[in-house]
Amino acid sequence: MEEGKILSAYYTYNPDTEALRPEDINGSILTHLIVFLADVCSSTGQIMCPPWLPEGLKRCVALKHKFPHLKVMFCLGSTTMSPVARSPELRRVCITSVVALLEECGLDGMDIDWEFPAWNSGHSEDKKHYVDLLRELREAFDRHSPRYLLTMAGAATKLIIDPAYDIPAIAPCIDFLNLMCYDYHLFKPYDIWAGHNAPMFRRREQHGFFATMNTQWSCEYWERRGMPKEKIVVGIPTYARSWQLLFPCFPYYHAPCTKENCSLTYVQVQEFLAQGGTRVFDKQAGVPYAYHRRQWISYEDEESMDVKTQWVRRNGYGGAMIFSLNHDDYAGILKNGEKFPLTSLAWKNVMGGEAVEAVGRKQQLLAAGDSSQVEFSMTSERKKLL
Question: Is 115 a catalytic residue?
């Protein structure tokens, strides 16, 4: 495992379904687990949590007994944070409330996901106020021992980045950026064409604005604007987006569509393929799509995950972020019982080796002087990840 690299992942805790329980998360293939979702009251500044969230957070923190390296954080997500950010008093209340939740649940820090400062609030000065909020959070977090982590989820498109973020001012405040390199293409009345949810690269025919709508461009733009490369953690979705084709006889990239259907999990996409769907890998964009009858799906699979995470490592970025664990094959339905196959592959490529539990066993064998078992142990773990 390479020191300093990051593999973060978002996780939605929902006690009503318990589809993916905290206890079933494999912490050996993560460095940071970020738990959805708390909000902030725009009139009081207090953190608002669903009543079940503190229990879920504590269950996630309990994973640290088995995976001591794992950092567990909660995500503060909001689209209405503008009144809080603009008011010094509400910022103070918000920060006090955040620290109280961190202490209550034994968390390692917080990820802030404001979608998006200035861009949709109608207040251009929120660009500055967001920096004020981050700076004051940083100061409060640094007073704790050990210091709390502060990360942020950031937009990937230029239309949002420019009005929303003072990147040189933000960079010193955060430990790293979870860059949301997905949702590049959504169905709109003025944009009815099937397109990739999270392309790695631009296609040859894309120019101007359209040439910016891909992961490579977003990462390089944040870096050019002042975010240190080692703090850029590149987001990769495990969910898929689906469109309804206008003409089933024309199911290719940029085909006309009539609407966007629901999002899908990785397992649902593989079931779609098993039931007659056709897979096409777009070598220019570095991602696949699939179609069958009137349904067209943009998704990630092991080939695109390999393309993206190898690129992250080769180009020296801080790591990769998975959105989300709930959409990966967490039950091991598809591949010989292997759980979290996409996340596991991301870990192998970004971190440069075995899961933490395998590294720990190797160290234990070496410490005991039994080097003869090390190669056998590590070979077995590699097979699990392949």
Answer: yes
What mean pLDDT comes out for the span 224-244? Answer: 98
Q: How far apart are CA 107 and CA 54, in angstroms?
A: 10
CATH of domain 6-238+299-356: 3.20.20.80
Contact 303, 241 (CB under 8 A): no
* Model pLDDT, residue 1: 58
If we measure between CA atoms, which residue out of 56, 48, 11 comes closest to residue 29?
11
- Report the percentage of the chain scoring pLDDT > 70: 91
CA-CA distances (angstroms) from residue 326 to 10, 31, 61, 347?
A: 8, 17, 18, 17
Q: Are the CB atoms for 31 and 7 separated by under 8 Å?
A: yes
Q: Looking at 55, 115, 220, 338, which residue is catalytic? A: 115
Local confidence band at 357 (pLDDT 50, 70, 90 cut-offs): low
Distance CA 170, CA 106 (A): 26
Give residue-wise pLDDT tens across range 251-287. 999 999 999 999 999 999 999 999 999 999 999 999 9
**CA–CA dist 224, 84 (Å, integer):** 30
Tokens found for residue 133 = 């909020």
- Cα three-residue angle 242-245-248, rounded to 5 degrees: 125
H-helix or E-strand containing 33? strand 32-40
Mean pLDDT of the chain: 92
- Beta strand spans in 79-154 (E): 109-114, 149-154
Question: 91-116, pLDDT tens digit by residue?
Answer: 999 999 999 999 999 999 999 999 99
Distance CA(109)–CA(362), nearest Å, equals: 30
Q: Which two tokens stand for residue 7?
A: 């593999």
Report d(CA 221, CA 161) in Å as an integer.
9
Buried/exposed code over 17-26 (b: 16+ C-beta within 10 A; e: otherwise): eeebebeebb
Judge contact between 78 and 117, C-beta under 8 A. Answer: no
Per-residue confidence (pLDDT) for residue 385, from 0 to 100: 31
Parse the chain into domains and list their residue ranges: 6-238+299-356, 357-386
